[in-house]
Specification:
Keywords: Exonuclease, Hydrolase, Nuclease. DNA polymerase III is a complex, multichain enzyme responsible for most of the replicative synthesis in bacteria. The epsilon subunit contain the editing function and is a proofreading 3'-5' exonuclease. The protein is α/β, with parallel strands linked by helices and 209 residues long. The protein has helices at residues 55-61, 65-69, 74-85, 95-106, 120-127, 136-142, 154-173, 182-190, 196-208; strands spanning 8-15, 26-35, 38-46, 90-92, 117-119. Strand 2 and strand 3 form a beta hairpin. Helix 5 (120-127) runs parallel beside helix 7 and helix 5 packs across helix 8 (182-190). The model has no long low-confidence stretch (mean pLDDT 95).
């Protein structure tokens, strides 16, 4: 059965670096659960990676070694998060980054997720080709989305991504695509910019038949 794009878990990781293959770990996760476009639950937790983070990461995220010292382990937090997500589909801004870290943190615990991923950044690149950049903060300003000015903390970034996601769904609605399913959003992210308008018009026609 198709799953609505309005019912997803939007997540964001803060990490010790760019690649779990280089030994980097997650240090914070934030997530927003949307059901029919409404926020029904949130999840936020710091996690202790088992080693000190660099001063650059402390400055960039505002997450200090002192804050992480008393945080629960990554494994403990990821088990809680798996229960929060359940079988939901997931959305992240630059999803390949967050998916890599989710896979790396889940793998030693033997956890597998049932949902799929969509990338709000790739979709925004298709829908907002005139945006100055497709970084989250720039898109939030470009679409005049309300925000509190906090970026690079996991819950704040997942809240912004969830708002951007709903704005993208509203913009698609004005093109005749009402309540698209999640797989359609994945398709948008993989469609070339030049082929996008024909994908949208074809989908709008079939939805109205």
């Amino acid at each position: 059965m198709p799953s609505s794009a309005k019912s997803v878990v939007v997540l964001d990781f803060e990490t010790t670096g760019l690649s779990p293959n280089m030994g980097d770990r997650a240090i914070e996760i934030g997530a927003i659960k949307l059901v029919n476009g409404e926020v029904v639950d949130t999840f936020q937790q710091l996690m202790n990676p088992g080693f000190r983070v660099s001063s650059f990461i402390e400055r960039y995220t505002g997450i200090t070694n002192n804050m992480l010292r008393t945080a629960p382990s990554c494994g403990e937090v990821m088990r809680e998060f798996a229960s929060f997500v359940g079988a939901s589909n997931m959305v992240a801004h630059n999803a390949s980054f967050d998916k890599r870290f989710l896979d790396a943190e889940y793998s030693p615990l033997g956890i597998e997720y049932q949902g799929q991923f969509a990338c709000s950044m790739l979709i925004a690149r298709r829908l907002y080709q005139d945006a100055p950049t497709h970084k989250l903060g720039d898109l939030v300003r470009y679409k005049r989305i309300d925000h509190d000015g906090v970026f690079h903390r996991a819950l704040a970034d997942s809240e912004m991504t969830a708002k951007l996601w709903m704005v993208m769904l509203q913009d698609l609605q004005s093109s005749g695509i009402v309540d698209p399913d999640f797989s359609f959003m994945q398709k948008v992210s993989k469609t070339s910019k030049s082929a996008l308008s024909s994908l949208i018009s074809k989908h709008a026609k079939s939805a109205n038949v």
